[in-house]
Design brief:
Elements (H helix, E strand, L loop, with lengths): L7 H19 L14 E4 L5 E3 L15 H15 L7 E5 L5 H14 L7 E4 L8 H8 L6 E5 L11 H9 L9 E7 L7 H10 L3 H9 L7 E5 L4 H15 L5 H15 L4 H15 L5
Parallel strand pairs: 1-4, 3-6, 3-7, 4-5, 5-6
Antiparallel strand pairs: 1-2
């Protein structure tokens, strides 16, 4: 007589198949490899994806006034990198609104406008996603393009330890920074850390000097430091004149000067950002779009 009793394994198989199918449906889809031919600029997303940016919000390099030395230095460094020559990571620090992030984007556009053999790619990573930098480097390392990885308004506060990921990606770890990647950051702080954060370290650490050095060493990963300072009145007015000429705005010189100075006074600052905000107001009153 044949034993017709089903085995425990055969009884469980349909259940196991259903569980496996449910897990496959619940699992996130695999992230496709980025298509770097889709654009010249990308934004790193928290889920580990590179989002193409078809049109970058940028200012023409010729309109950036009062920062000639920083402009030329960053352009030369970026041009060498685009040609495959040695170049440094760059930290653009200093006064707010003086064109730090605008300069990075303008230099990228100018390099590509001069027609390198292969377009230079700009990849922005947000401050809050900096811990994903090693994963981003993994996507960029094997690609034949060269990449400027850019983080705007980079700084660290309190117990934030994500700066360690940045240190390792820039100039540490076994692999180190890929040869086809350079890192540019902007910050209002030269050492990327709040002053009270550094003072607290000195006050509470067993060895204050070592505690501060460990954090300040992050800025040492940037071989190129470019300091941006508040502009003079003449430089501010030169920015205004450049924008007026670029956008073809018609206004009496005396009126332009008086309004521009009043605009900066009411805002308590003279900077490239303040100048452009005035130009936006002026163009709106004149009924002229800023193309």
């Amino acid at each position: 007589m044949t034993d017709q009793t089903p085995s425990p394994v055969s009884d469980l198989m349909p259940v196991l198949l259903r569980i496996a199918a449910a897990l496959e449906r619940a699992a996130p889809p695999a992230i496709p490899a980025p298509d770097f031919a889709a654009a010249d600029a990308f934004v790193w997303q928290p889920e580990g994806r590179l989002q193409p940016v078809p049109r970058v919000n940028r200012v023409e390099m010729g309109l950036l006034r009062g920062i000639d030395r920083m402009r030329d230095t960053l352009f030369d460094n970026t041009e060498r990198f685009a040609r495959g020559l040695p170049a440094n990571n760059a930290l653009l620090w200093g006064a707010r609104g003086m064109g730090k992030s605008s300069l990075v984007k303008a230099v990228h556009a100018e390099i590509n406008a001069r027609g390198p053999e292969r377009p230079l790619k700009l990849v922005e990573i947000h401050r809050e996603d900096i811990e994903g930098l090693p994963a981003l480097m993994g996507w960029l390392r094997p690609d034949p393009h060269r990449f400027v990885v850019f983080c705007d308004d980079l700084s660290f506060d309190g117990d934030d330890t994500s700066y360690k990921s940045l240190k390792a990606a820039l100039d540490g770890g076994i692999e180190g920074r890929p040869d086809n990647v350079i890192f540019y950051a902007t910050s209002n702080r030269r050492h990327l850390l709040a002053r009270d954060m550094m003072e607290n370290e000195r006050a509470t650490a067993i060895n204050p000097g070592e505690a501060v050095e460990e954090k300040v060493s992050l800025s040492d990963r940037f071989g190129l430091w470019l300091g941006f300072h508040k502009c003079s009145q003449d430089e501010y007015l030169a920015m205004i004149d450049a924008y007026v000429a670029r956008y073809g705005l018609t206004v009496a010189p005396e009126q332009l000067r008086a309004e521009a100075l009043e605009w900066s006074t009411t805002r308590g600052a003279r900077s490239g950002r303040t100048a452009f905000q005035y130009i936006q107001d002026l163009a709106g009153r004149l009924g002229r779009p800023l193309d």
